[in-house]
Amino acid sequence: MKNEELEKKAIQVRLDTLKAIHKAGSGFVGGNMSVIEILVSLYYGDLGTRKAMLFDATKPGCGEQDYLIMSKGSAAPAQYAVLADLGFFDSEELNYLGQVGSVLKARPSAKVPGVSANVLIDGRGLSVAVGLAMSLKMERKNNRVFTIMEDKELLRGQVWEAATMAYHYKLDNLVAIIDNPRVEVDPTNPNDIKVDDIQHKFESFGWKVIQVRDGHDFDQLLDAYIRAFASVRKPVCIWCHTVAGRGVEFAERKHSYLRANLSHGEMADIVPKLEVQL
After folding, report:
1. Are the C-beta atoms of residues 72 and 179 closer than 8 Å to each other?
2. How confident is the model over 125-159, as pLDDT tens digits?
3. 165-171, long-range: CB within 8 Å, 24+ apart, which pairs?
4. Residue 75 contacts residue 248 (beta carbons within 8 Å)
């Protein structure tokens, strides 16, 4: 896809995600909107010599695919919207997100076609990705493993244990993408712990770090994947500076929307504005 097509696709995925979350009655609008362009660039992006991420919607789990571990579990609805659009499952399933009996759980579930692993607790996705990347190396396979993480996961010790293992085993088939959304200070918790400099942290653990200054810019995202694939004997961290609530103008950067749903009135306001852009 060309960039203008990717931008249109991002709008459509944003709409589908908002509608699914709203109908479910719960979900994190701010955290889902910040990751849309990252997902679209991975699933639809073309690097010239290859697709950004290899998969076959008609054969989920095929041996030639790349793997995406959605460590940012609260953003599962955004991934589901992409998978539905690609035909991994009927888009009607989005209407039943999070409901009893629905295959689409609130957090990533491997029962969903196209989802590689269950991620029930934040901070465990990188460990899953490291184990998978190690097994692929042992089997001498060329598949790549991606994981999308949110910045707050980096406060967990398990993440850095996994990062140490990834460097030790020279997992250059592993790409960790950090969604680092800009958000205003929470007035109810001004002393909220902040993540230290991500580049310094990962480099100190032996990783190659690529910064994407605008995590909603497809040129920057696709260029980062090209650079990541050139890494030899080092895992790669792509640090994406994003905006919480991106595309929902009244929610952008607002801490109050980071882990909230939209009201009926707010949906009536934003949906037509997004639809007119398609």
Report:
1. yes
2. 999 999 999 999 999 999 999 999 999 999 999 99
3. 165/130, 165/134, 166/126, 166/130, 166/133, 166/207, 166/235, 167/205, 167/206, 167/207, 167/234, 167/235, 169/130, 169/134, 169/137, 170/233, 170/234, 170/235, 171/130, 171/133, 171/134, 171/137, 171/235
4. no
Domains of the chain: 3-275 (3.40.50.970)
- How many CA atoms lie less than 13 Å away from 85 in the CB half-sphere? 20
Task: Please give the pLDDT value at position 194.
Answer: 65
Strands (E), the chain: 67-70, 145-150, 174-182, 208-212, 236-243
CA distance 222 to 45: 7
Reply yes or no on whether the pLDDT at 187 is more than 70: no
Say which DSSP state 51 is in.
Answer: B
Q: Can you tell me which residue has the tokens 């852009």?
A: 277
pLDDT at residue 263 greater than cutoff 60: yes
Provide the mean pLDDT of the chain.
94
Q: What is the pLDDT of residues 51-85, one digit of tens each?
A: 999 999 999 888 889 999 999 999 999 999 999 99
**Could you give the strand order of the β-sheet that contains 208-212, starting from the edge strand earlier in sequence?**
67-70, 145-150, 174-182, 236-243, 208-212
Which DSSP letter does residue 128 get?
H
**Which ranges of 45-124 would DSSP assign to H, the alpha helix?**
76-86
